[in-house]
């Protein structure tokens, strides 16, 4: 399964290092990934950072080609993206 950096719409290219979600606060963009033909973003708020938590969103493009975020509802899909993110951070199977 492809775990490369996304070639789709770039959140960092549009928003920089942080993004403000409607009603959800400000999140740091930790990573943008492409997995199974879909683009994803791994985000983290300051509150989530304290607990070591992340949030995973699917990145799509609207009619204007601008990136939009969709909540990942499927647990298996969410876990696959979280594992791919961990692999990028910790070099594959070498996790602390």
Explain this structure to me?
This protein has 96 residues and is an alpha+beta fold. The protein has one domain. The chain is 28% helix and 35% strand. The chain has three helices and five strands, in the order αβββαββα. A five-stranded antiparallel sheet has the order 1-2-3-4-5. A hairpin with a 5-residue loop joins β4 and β5. It is globular and about 35 Å long.
State the main characteristics:
96 residues; alpha+beta; five-stranded antiparallel β-sheet; 3 helices; globular
Spatial sequence of strands, sheet with the most strands: 1-2-3-4-5
Share of residues in strands:
35-45%
What is the distance, rounded to the nearest whole angstrom, between the alpha carbons of the first and last residues?
23 Å
- Overall average pLDDT: 85
CA-based shape? globular
Helix fraction, binned, reads 25-40%
Catalogue the unreliable spans. Answer: 1-7
What's the count of strands?
Answer: 5
The ordered H/E elements are HEEEHEEH
- Summed up, the helix count is 3
Q: Please summarize the sheet with the most strands.
A: 5 strands, antiparallel
Q: How many structural domains?
A: 1
Integer-rounded radius of gyration: 13 Å
Note the quaternary state here. single chain
Structural class: alpha+beta
Concise description?
The chain has 96 residues and is an alpha+beta fold. It contains 3 helices and 5 strands, in the order αβββαββα. It has one domain.
List the helices and strands and how they pair.
Layout: H1 11-15, E1 18-21, E2 25-35, E3 38-44, H2 46-51, E4 55-61, E5 67-71, H3 75-90
Antiparallel strand pairs: 1-2, 2-3, 3-4, 4-5
